[in-house]
Amino acid sequence: MKPCQRLPGILLAMTLFNTSLPAVAADAAADPAEATVDFFAKISAKDLAAVVRYLPAEGFTETVPESKALLHLDAKAFEGLFKSGRQIDLRTADLTLQRFGDTALVTGTRLGGIGTADAAPSPGRLAFTMVWTRAASGWQLRHLHLSPQP
């Protein structure tokens, strides 16, 4: 086989490789602020597969006003929440982003909340701070701190 005859095969392989990259990139948020907005939207949609994309295997920690304990949330916790039938409506506002290489800090306001199966969530407002790290699969949530706003 002449070298020029191998070229189409090489080009085909390169084309397949290059076209697969945007699909993966499009699946994951490009930056941690986008990841934050998408994370809460996917929780509201009860889209477990999409939520899990943002979770490291060991999950993340969370501090909430209702608990003195540091919570640990992973895929099983979200699966249980979604199967519970509880109504979820979470959105974000007033986002700020600080990047430190492969680590980022996103702050803002979380709007909405989590209600019961037969009652919609009350319109809550909590300040939040999220710590994200970049992994090969995209941005992953490491810690979420929620606080009442004055």
Description:
It is a single chain. The protein is α+β, with helices and mostly antiparallel strands and 150 residues long. The chain has a single domain, classed as Nuclear Transport Factor 2, Chain: A (Roll), CATH 3.10.450. The chain has helices at 3-27, 32-44, 48-52, 75-83, and strands spanning 60-63, 71-73, 88-100, 103-114, 125-135, 138-148. The chain has a six-stranded mixed beta sheet with strand order 2-1-6-5-4-3. β5 (125-135) and β6 form a beta hairpin. The longest helix has 25 residues, at 3-27. It is globular, with a radius of gyration of 20 Å. The termini are far apart. The relative contact order is 0.17.
Question: Which SSEs are present, and which pair or pack?
Answer:
Layout: H1 3-27, H2 32-44, H3 48-52, E1 60-63, E2 71-73, H4 75-83, E3 88-100, E4 103-114, E5 125-135, E6 138-148
Per DSSP, the total helix count is: 4
Give the total of domains: 1
What is the CATH architecture term? Roll
Q: What is the top-level CATH class? A: Alpha Beta
- Structural class call reads alpha+beta
Radius of gyration: 20 Å
At CATH level 3, the topology is: Nuclear Transport Factor 2, Chain: A
Total strands: 6
Largest sheet properties = 6 strands, mixed
Keywords:
150 residues, alpha+beta, Nuclear Transport Factor 2, Chain: A, disordered N terminus
How would you briefly describe this protein structure?
By secondary structure, the chain is of the alpha+beta class.
